[in-house]
Specification:
By secondary structure, the chain is of the alpha/beta class. The protein has helices at 18-26, 46-56, 70-80, 99-104, 140-146, 162-165, 178-187, 214-231, 234-255, 262-296; strands at residues 5-11, 33-39, 60-64, 85-88, 94-95, 111-120, 126-127, 158-161, 193-205. Helix 8 (214-231) crosses helix 10 (262-296).
Amino acid sequence: MNNLVSIIIPCYNQAEFLPTTLQSVLNQTYTNWECLIIDDGSPDNTTEIAQEWIKKDDRFKYHKKENGGLSSARNKGLQEANGDYIQFLDSDDLIDEKKIELSLQQSTADLIISNFNLFIDSQNNIQPNYCNLNKVTFDFENILKEWDKSFSIPIHCGLFKKTLIGNTKFNEQLKAKEDWLFWIEIFSKNPKVAYIKTPLVLYRIHSKSMTKDSKLMIENLTQVQSFIYNILDQNYKEIFFKRIISDYEICQKKLEVLNSIDDVHQELLLYKKYKDKYYNIWYKKLFYSLKKSLKKK
């Protein structure tokens, strides 16, 4: 097997971490890859660093675009990718030197997911990850119901056949939670999945991590729930509706983003008895209340 792998690295104001990330790509034991550095209008010295690595190895390719956000940068990478497989990698994270080699050994799979660890500042400060992927069933319903509850999958854990991704793109209206929607759309295609228990990905935790911005996450949670709900058939809408209730209660208790929940709370109390009658009305009120409360913050 000598398939070309396209490694897509979106960059925005992460120049300080970029060399280490690119080194993890250069270290790959599998050598037939291209690395697309997508500069999303970074005002820092990302351009200079990228140019240095292009001179070092012509498998690195640099593309600069106007700032459009993470999803836009990833989509640009998909547009430019020539590979048979796609490997996403954020500009502050790392992949093990055998990530691609071991993944490609699962030649019959459409999607190969590997385990991951966390690290803080230094690769010597490795922490166990926040979920046990070894116990996860990788299917559509589980991604729908359990994402961010019992597990989530960093996007760079996956190695995707390009034919599996097809025309699927990252939603550019979302500034967070775009991975969840992308995974749902991928799993809606019922891919053949292989899982590697060995952690082959390092996910960096630092002060600039987008996932540390709770308000941003909650605001985009309501948006992504709306997008997901609208693509589901009726049976899955029933399942996801219960998930929305749970997410709403977590927002209320942990992040205290709602100023008043009296009206929506009454709908919650009536849910079991009047589910069919109030289904769409309650759903719309929920998202309206969440968004309205966030704007007041």
